[in-house]
Amino acid sequence: MPQFLEHSMTSWRGQEVEHQLSIVDQFDPRARIITAMIFAIVVVFSKTLWLPFVGLLLAFTFALSASLHIKRTLRRVIAMDMFVLLMIIMLPFTMDGTPLFHLFGFAASQEGFIHAIGIALKANAVVLALLALVGTLEASVLGHALARLQVPEKLVHLLLFTVRYLDVISREYKSMRKAMKARAFVARNNLHTWRSFGYLIGMLLVRSLERSERIFAAMKCRGYCGKLYLFDTMSWQRRDTCLILIIVLFALFAIASGAYLR
Hints:
By secondary structure, the protein is mainly α. Helices cover 65% and strands 3% of the residues.
């Protein structure tokens, strides 16, 4: 596997990410995936503001325990928050309710503003928890963990092959771009530029298809029959059960407190 894709928290541009072993890394990958899934379900379906806020605090705890790279994590969360910010601006003006203030003749509703804040809290909590629990898994380990959780093999194969050959496609793209520059191509906002990029994408797809056929033929020569064989050494331990119990207790607390009732 390419070095820059060996860690799923690595930037796709290729620089290596220094990730120190943390408390989260001691848990079984399956327990981390299950915890992230339950956490996301509990937070997303909440109909109150306090539960997403508590979930955000819990997500911060996961992030601190995972020793996430602060600057890279902030960039990713802020990139998501740019879309959330647009929603927060628009939602109060598009949702009926008690007028909070008026802007250019349009009324901003209190219900819309509260709903937008709730969505923002949920999105940040879920993204931060996923970065801490799942984002620190190596791509190959993530694929094997999903296979152990009985995820359909075709989806697991698609994930593993995509991660494995993204670097190949990236090198092919860079080679074609270098050839365009060698022919004095300069990107401009005109028909020739858009046509050239269309040809570039088309040739990239054609070459990817040709390479995939060659790879599949080579795999068949080596006895590949569509079966995923797992040789990992995952072992479920007591601490993994404790992690699942903690998130289940969090879910039961949310249900008992009426967080899903209007």
